[in-house]
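Field guide to reading this record: the first block holds the primary sequence, the second block holds the structure written as discrete tokens, and the final block holds curator observations. Each block starts with its own label. This record concerns Methylated-DNA--protein-cysteine methyltransferase, catalogued under organism Clostridium cibarium.

BLOCK 1 — SEQUENCE
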Amino acid sequence: MRNIFYCDTKIGKIGIEENGEAITKVYLVNKDLQDDIGEKTETILLKKAVKELNEYFEGKRSSFDLPLEPGGTEFQKKVWEALIEIPCGETRSYGEIAKVIGNEKAARAVGMANNKNPIMIIIPCHRVIGANGSLVGYAGGLNIKEKLLELEKNCMNR
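BLOCK 2 — STRUCTURE
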């Protein structure tokens, strides 16, 4: 069964979904759609996810301790695992992630996997930037990416 909970955050309303065992999605909510998707139930796992996300937005948490089960290809999952290893407050380029996963010519494919990340923030695709240091490509919009990176500037002090 799919359970969904919505919460307001510094970047807007987000939806958190779980399948009874793991978080499967975290996304910005399109106000027009929020009433049409899934069971709205606050389970123990969703409560924990909301708590950890609130701590993140308050600057009290730099990593997450939640079971994750993002749906995707093996390649995408490999990229998302590499993203989780990027420390809070740091960034990597698409090319650097491609090297980490053992396919240094796959920078574009890494970008596409980033774009398909179903668990924003917790799988920190916002920490991936262009080779020249520019903010590029974020499904939530570059303004949200910028806000998340700004929020994380003090991670080193936590």
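BLOCK 3 — OBSERVATIONS
Residues 44-57 form the longest helix (14 residues).
The mean pLDDT is 88.
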